[in-house]
Specification:
With 114 residues, the chain is an all-beta fold. It is 0% helix and 40% strand. It is globular. This is 3-phenylpropionate/trans-cinnamate dioxygenase ferredoxin subunit.
Length: 114
């Protein structure tokens, strides 16, 4: 795993997200109820930045909502929790070291498909 510093934790709003443009991917770093997540910053349905959407609980899951059509994505798995999106988006391992948020974009966690 190749964790790299992507931002300061203090830059990520509580119950919100921050878009981070990296060489290999654009990532939404998200804080929700004290947890930090990293998800690809691109809706699989409409190809708009997820970081512009609301962060909330939806169907008992921490999610980020695509502002364009309302699909929510589980921050833990990348799976869509409602239509119109049907395809997951990559999520990435995250570590917080002091005020540094570290993400490993080379180790995306594929969503489990049944």
């Amino acid at each position: 795993m190749a964790f790299e510093r992507v931002c300061a934790l203090s830059e990520v709003p509580a119950n919100g997200s921050l878009r981070v443009e990296l060489a290999d991917a654009d990532v939404a770093v998200v804080r929700f109820e004290g947890e930090v997540y990293a998800i690809e910053d691109l809706c699989s349905h409409a190809e708009v930045p997820l970081s512009e959407g609301e962060v909330e609980e939806f169907h008992d899951a921490p999610t980020i909502e695509c502002y364009l059509h309302g699909s929510c994505f589980d921050l833990r798995t990348g799976e869509p929790t409602n239509l119109p999106a049907t395809e997951p988006v990559p999520v990435y391992p995250v570590r917080v070291d002091g005020d540094d948020v570290l993400v490993d974009v080379d180790a995306s966690v594929p969503a489990a498909r049944n």
